[in-house]
Request: fold
Amino acid sequence: MKWLMFIKLFKEIFSKKRLPNLEYIEKQGLLAVKIAQTFALRIDFLSESTCTHLAKLYSRTEPVEGLAYQNLLKSYVDKVWFDHFEYIEEKPIGSASVGQVHRAKLKTGEEVVIKFLKKDFKKKFIKDVKSLRRFIKFIIFFYPKLQKVADPVGILEHIENYTLAELDLRNEIKHGYILKDIHDKNQHIFDLSRLKFPKIYEDLSSENVLVSEYIKGDTIDDLLSEKKMILADILEIFHIHGFFVFLVGTFHGDLHPGNIIKKDNDFYFIDTGAISKVGEKIQKGLFQFMDRLAYYDYDGCAHALNQMALTEISGNKFEAFHQKMLELYKDFDDKTVSEISLTKRMMETIKLGVHSGMVFEKGMFPIIKSMMYLDGIVLKGAPDTILMQEMRRYLNEFHEAKKEVIR
Reply:
């Protein structure tokens, strides 16, 4: 992907005249799709309609079908592999940027899904990342503040790391076990009873193919689209994911609504190829910030954000930041998520901190992205919710569990 192509891609994403052309974006390659997916979260400076449109790239990309699909699957496995299946449905039930999923049934009777990579993305993806990194560094040379405010290099590194992890489906197995192990060790400390993980058939899986239990349920994405997500379930997702983010610091790195399936009363985390970890300073600081924000303690928020920074500010610098932050949040009390986006206000807060002299840990984007997903779910499913007030019910539980949590 040449620099001119990057410019065209960003023009497509930021067009004010029309919605982005998803077919065009897909044709530019995997990196273009991943960039567009990242901007699907940026309701802080893109319209809601643009973000919703870009979010289709998470689970509604063009599938490989017919003879091409059959030949691709045959190239990944040997003939003996097919002998384990009673049937494999030809029509995919899902297609994302990296892989697609087909229902199947084993001869032993279990219903499963087969996920496989749609093609060999790695070589072109790595080449495109190198090109974009050079482009970003060129821009930063002339506008160095961009690195501090937006951290484009850190965001690109995050995209690179989690995408390369996704391109080896064995990571989905490995990371799923890590999250499940954390779940199992802490279920007596914290209520994680509604969280489940699908069974993986490791003997039938490889770098390019993954066979797992078929979960007969609906994705959160579908439930949101059909207006079938109740507030209690939305808050339970925050409750579960908040445990991993705030208390453990190891969490599902791509928990968008298409990667959670609700079956009966349980939530299944799927597509665990990307896993994220956050440093203890950021983890503690963000929890303290959210804790203070839930009770509209903006003085406490200002100190929590400063303590979260690698380079803190003090004296007149802090006082100036403090006053600007109070001004930023003067209209925040008792507002619903549709009136004021938590994501947008947090991005503005971090930007204010950077402009005031704070320097944050490189690679902070994964945890911000995680909060964006949760905020987006609430915004789409329960727009009249005062999220900060709803969060209060979990804060004491988080505080108590933090003393005993096993990482």
About this structure: Residues 3-61+122-166 form one domain. DSSP finds 18 helices and eleven strands in the chain. The first strand starts at residue 85 and ends at 88.
